[in-house]
Amino acid sequence: MRKFDTVLVTGGCGFIGTNFIKYIFDKTNYKIINIDALTYAGNIKNLIDIENKDRYFFERVNICDAKKVNSIFEKYKPDCIVHFAAESHVDRSIFGPKDFIDTNIIGTFTLLEAARNLWKDNANGKLFHHISTDEVYGSLSDTGYFYETTAYDPRSPYSASKASSDHIVKAYYHTYNLPVTISNCSNNYGPYQFPEKLIPLMISNIIEEKDLPVYGDGKNIRDWIFVEDHNNAVLDIIYKGRVGETYNIGGENEITNIDMVNILCEKLASKMNKDKDYYKRLIKFVKDRAGHDRRYAINCDKIKKELGWKRQYDFNTAIDITIDWYLNNKEWIYDVKSGEYQKWIELNYSNSL
Ligand code: NAD
Ligand code: TYD
């Protein structure tokens, strides 16, 4: 079992990173360094509860900025890096791929170089954990699963940029013996997810009684996992994962998009004391996403058998936790959607990038 003193998290103000930092802050005594550029998807207010704690440090840094990244690495000397920072939304990657190439590929390369430099004399017990996605494996038809051995076949600029970063991470292991692990996870849901992804977008539109845009025939399938189960798996990997290995993480919970939207409509109707079908009138089938992957489904036997990981949450419980969080945090939704939050960042953090 590895032990660390200082864990550096990239992208800790985004959806999964925020949940990860809160989780390890509670569960460990690590010094935690959060580096994040605070793009539209990063919200520093998510971590307001711990911002003044003496073992938590925030640095506004773009991971493509080698000079700044190196100086942060020298300053804190992390012995573990957990790399979440990315451009993460497929639709945005279709309309503007460049940021995805920059952050996901060049940013990952920049971090790998900084880690190689920092640990050049002794990399024993150190670890660079790279967070990736099941989307690198491409699209499945009605049957079959993604295994760690499945050939990469990315289709969107997002998944291609993540696939590229995975390959570079693996190259640093084989070429330079950099101690790395990689995880490829299925679709996450939970608190703090930016309301552009399916679940929080639908919840926030239902709250506002706006249209619920379902792409194509709505029969595309995703394998949904609660964010805390993902983060628990990441902890298992950084403690016990074999260096150089990839671990798939999945929810074993395949749901079509239209079924998911119907579930959300019904659950919100019940919470808001409306008729069961009240919100379903908002569902609108719209033009399909370009190159829309049909089905994702993860086989995660490896992490279960090798590291003893298992999910703690069933879908019904975790989706209720998620919906309740958005219902109780309407101001957060307004802030990130309206641009108010970005204005606040520019006022308060404009000099620090
Ligand atoms: P997110 O978009 O919510 O957050 C990304 C974070 O990275 C933000 O805080 C943003 O400010 C930061 N960031 C972006 N560009 C940066 C840069 N150049 N320098 C520094 N910081 C930068 O993303 P998420 O959903 O939390 O995803 C986190 C990671 O998990 C990503 O690597 C993603 O590919 C992976 N992943 C996500 C899912 C999912 O369902 N959300 C599933 C599997 C894997
Ligand atoms: P998304 O949350 O963007 O995740 P990903 O594309 O990375 O899997 O989308 C999940 C599924 O929901 C995907 O099949 C696209 C679909 N979708 C819609 O039908 N309508 C929407 O408004 C969005 C954002 C997604």
Textual characterization of the structure:
- With 353 residues, this protein is of the alpha/beta class.
- The chain has a domain at 6-190 and 226-252 and 291-313 and 339-349: 3-Layer(aba) Sandwich (Rossmann fold), CATH 3.40.50.720.
- The chain has 12 helices and 13 strands.
- It has helices spanning 15-27, 66-76, 90-95, 98-118, 157-176, 198-208, 227-240, 257-271, 301-307, 315-328, 330-338, 340-349, and strands at residues 6-10, 31-36, 56-60, 80-83, 127-133, 180-185, 188-189, 212-215, 221-223, 225-226, 246-249, 254-256, 283-286.
- Strands 3-2-1-4-5-6-11 form a 7-stranded parallel β-sheet, with helices on both faces. Strands 7-10 form a two-stranded parallel ribbon. Strands 8-13 form a two-stranded parallel ribbon.
- Helix 5 links the parallel strand 5 (127-133) and strand 6.
- The longest helix has 21 residues, at 98-118.
- The two termini are 36 Å apart.
- The mean pLDDT is 96.
- The site of nicotinamide-adenine-dinucleotide (NAD) has 29 residues, from helix 1, helix 4 and strand 5.
- It comes from Brachyspira innocens.
